[in-house]
Structure formats: structure tokens, C-alpha cells
Design goal:
The chain is α/β, with parallel strands linked by helices and 410 residues long. Helices cover 40% and strands 16% of the residues. The strands form five sheets. The protein has a seven-stranded mixed beta sheet, with helices on both faces. A four-stranded antiparallel beta sheet has the order 13-14-17-16, covered by helices on one side. The longest helix has 21 residues, at 64-84.
């Protein structure tokens, strides 16, 4: 197969200090980026320099360091807004994508959406986009509707449109890309169909913003959530995008500093979005890291990253199809850099442990998608996931290690 890359992958890898080490005497083949991506030196250095020279609490003080920190924090918001093609006041910083989804459930879901209206999700959602709606459904007594999918991992769009017509749906919450299957959902069409019935849509974009450009205006999506750590940034930070009019309709998620206008014992008034949803000291240093990560992605080029990852996935899929006993889970025609697989003769946990002895890092388990595992009659799969720094040599290392594991376990 053609191994020509749209950029110098080895030069990209050189920007990631983690690849300077060996694991169990072998080169590190990090194939777990869907769980969390590694960090380029640019991100690490930006966060370190900020802590060394500019750190103070934001929105609190008039001294120089506080003003520097506030400027950096709000510059990060502006940077995210440009990345998503959103308005700055439509970008809320959260603890992570899970926190962002819970924010929407607790505010729009609990206080804005009419009682009795159903919430619709898909059958291959991450637990973070299942459990908050289950909890709310139990509390509020509404129906949780689940869009089915076929054996390839493609959502049933006829079922989706029919149910939108037949049920009183208050919100659709769906993954842009499945973290297990790699399926890219036709979300623009799904959003249009929902809007035709007056139903807003929340998009879990954790697995999409890392692989291709996402434009919230072009999608016309109402809410969107992603986490920084999957996008070459730090942990402990997420983003919620919400259309301005929706955010203004929502009450605060938590109480505390920065989300207030005036506090009196007789009553409190709240700040306008986005600060209304950012109670307490935020992840200041982490927003600096996210800014650096977005700058890094832009420098490499999202289109080039997508092209490279598609080539690596195609190569890995070709090898998987020829590997005896290997069953690929997720065969949608439109998918991104995830290869989930299963062997009848080898448990995923055993595989992952053995692969680690050969320097290969893959994820094994239910991937926070237990209903999806049940749909395929499995308790776990192994998952190799690829990123901007992934190489064809790492894929070869994976399959060489799989052959050795098969010899050991079968």
C-alpha cells in the first residue's frame, strides 16, 4: 500500500517527548489516542511558562499577574471560538466533556425542556451521553429513546426520522463519531431532521474534533461538547458550545464565585453566559495548554491530519482483514481512526497485557459503551486508535505482537 504521508510524520513525532522512551525494551507504539492523546512539547512548554511567569487567579484582581492570567484565559475562549466557528460568548469552559453534557442535562434538560418530552440518544453512545439522561429520565419521568444501528455500526436513519415524527422529543443527544466503532454519523442531516420538528441537538464531538474540522455554524448544531485531552491538550478541561439564545435561557449549573452578578442574602442575580456556568476558579493553566494545542493542530493542518490518519487506518484495516481469527467490530463505510477487534480465542484484556510487553499500547474493555458491547454479544474488545503522530511502522509492530500473542494464547 502507498505509505506516502501528507507531512513528515517522524518530524511530528519528534515534537512529542513521550516517544523518546522505550517500553519493555521496545519502541513505544501508542495506539490509545481515542482515550487520550499525547501532548506535543509546544503544549507542555506553554503551560510551564505560564505557571513560571504569569499565573494568578482570573477575573479577581487588578494586579499585573491577574490581568495577564485573565487575558490568557479569555484568549483561550476566543481561540476555541475560532476553532469551532462560534461566538466567544457561546463557549463555556467545563471540567471535561462529561461535565459539559451533565451541564446541559441539569440546566436545559431539567429546567427548560418541557416535562414529559423524550430524549433521544443512539445505541452506541459513550456512558457520558447515556447516564446523565437516564438519571434525568428517572427524575422527571420521561422516555429515553435509543436509535438502533446495524451490524456494520450504521445508525438506522429511517427509525430516527419516523420516531421524531411519532414521539414528543425534547432533545437529541448523539455522538458525532463512535469511540468504539469509528462510525461518523451524518449529523448535519440528523440535525436538519430534528430541527424540522423543533428539536434541538447536542453533539458529543470528543471523537470528531480530533480528526476533522467541525464548524458549529455549518452544522447548525445547538450544543456541542468536547474534551481538551483528546485534542493534544491537558486533562481536566472541556468545552461546551451552546447557541447564545439557548445558553441565556438556562439557569446556572453550580453556585459560587464568578457566576454571579450580585449576591445578597435576600437573593442572588447571575452573570450572563458563559460566566454563568463557570463557578469557582477554573482550569486556568489548562486553557493555556488548549490554546497551544489548537495552535499546534492548525500548524500541522486538520485536513492533512485527516488524510494521514485515513491512510494509517486503511493500512491497519487491510492487515486486520488478512489476520486469521481477527474480527473487526465496526465496518461503517464512513469511519475514522479507530480499529476495534475481537478474537474468539483470546480475551481483549489478555491481549492488551501481552501487547504491552512488546511496547504496544491499546485499549481493552467495554470502552464506556457497555450497551454497544451487549449489542455485539461481547464483554470487551481491543481497540487501536490512531492520531497525527501514528505511523505505519506502529501498525506493523501491533500485528507482529498480535501474532506472538496468538502463539502464546491459542
Amino acid at each position: 500500500m502507498n505509505h506516502n504521508a501528507p507531512y513528515d510524520v517522524q518530524a511530528v513525532r519528534a515534537e512529542f517527548p513521550v516517544f523518546e522512551q522505550s517500553i519493555n525494551g521496545k519502541p513505544l507504539a501508542y495506539l490509545d489516542s481515542a482515550a487520550s492523546a499525547q501532548k506535543p512539547r509546544q503544549v507542555i512548554e506553554a503551560m510551564t511558562a505560564f505557571m513560571q511567569h504569569d499565573y494568578a487567579n482570573v477575573h479577581r484582581g487588578l494586579h499585573t499577574l491577574s490581568m495577564r492570567s485573565t487575558d490568557a484565559y479569555e484568549a483561550a475562549r476566543a481561540r476555541v471560538a475560532r476553532f469551532l466557528n462560534a461566538g466567544e460568548r457561546e463557549v463555556v469552559f467545563t471540567k471535561g466533556a462529561t461535565d459539559a453534557i451533565n451541564l446541559v442535562a441539569a440546566t436545559y434538560g431539567r429546567h427548560v425542556m418541557a416535562t414529559g418530552k423524550a430524549v433521544m440518544i443512539s445505541a452506541f453512545e459513550h456512558h457520558a451521553n447515556i447516564v446523565p439522561w437516564q438519571m434525568l429520565a428517572q427524575e422527571r419521568g420521561f422516555e429515553l429513546l435509543v436509535i438502533p444501528h446495524d451490524d456494520a455500526g450504521v445508525l438506522d436513519q429511517d427509525w430516527y426520522r419516523r420516531t421524531l415524527s411519532e414521539k414528543d422529543v425534547g432533545l437529541v443527544a448523539v455522538a458525532h463519531v463512535s469511540n468504539v466503532l469509528g462510525t461518523v454519523n451524518p449529523v448535519r442531516d440528523m440535525i436538519d431532521a430534528a430541527h424540522a420538528h423543533g428539536v434541538p441537538v447536542l453533539l458529543d464531538a470528543c471523537q470528531s474534533v480530533t480528526h476533522f474540522a467541525v464548524d458549529v455554524k455549518a452544522l447548525d448544531v445547538d450544543f456541542l461538547a468536547f474534551s481538551a485531552h483528546k485534542l493534544y491538550g491537558p486533562t481536566g478541561l472541556g468545552v461546551l458550545y451552546g447557541k447564545s439564545e439557548l445558553l441565556k435561557s438556562m439557569p446556572p449549573y453550580q453556585g459560587g464565585g464568578d457566576m454571579i452578578d450580585q449576591v445578597r442574602f435576600e437573593g442572588t442575580t447571575y452573570a450572563e453566559p458563559p460566566l454563568r456556568f463557570e463557578a469557582g476558579t477554573p482550569a486556568i493553566v489548562e486553557t493555556v495548554g488548549l490554546t497551544a494545542a489548537l495552535d499546534w493542530v492548525e500548524r500541522i493542518g486538520m485536513d492533512k491530519i485527516a488524510e494521514h490518519e485515513a491512510a494509517v487506518l486503511a493500512y491497519a484495516t487491510h492487515k486486520a482483514q488478512a489476520f486469521d481469527g481477527m474480527q473487526i467490530i465496526g465496518k461503517a463505510p464512513n469511519k475514522v481512526s479507530v480499529l476495534s477487534f475481537h478474537f474468539d480465542t483470546m480475551h481483549a484484556h489478555d491481549l492488551s497485557t501481552i501487547l504491552d510487553q512488546f511496547g504496544v499500547a491499546v485499549r481493552a474493555g467495554h470502552h464506556c459503551a457497555q450497551p454497544l458491547m451487549e449489542r455485539f454479544g461481547l464483554t470487551a474488545t481491543a481497540r487501536a486508535s490512531f492520531a497525527a503522530y501514528s505511523t505505519f511502522e506502529e501498525v506493523d509492530q501491533l500485528f507482529d505482537a498480535l501474532a506472538l500473542a496468538r502463539d502464546m494464547l491459542e
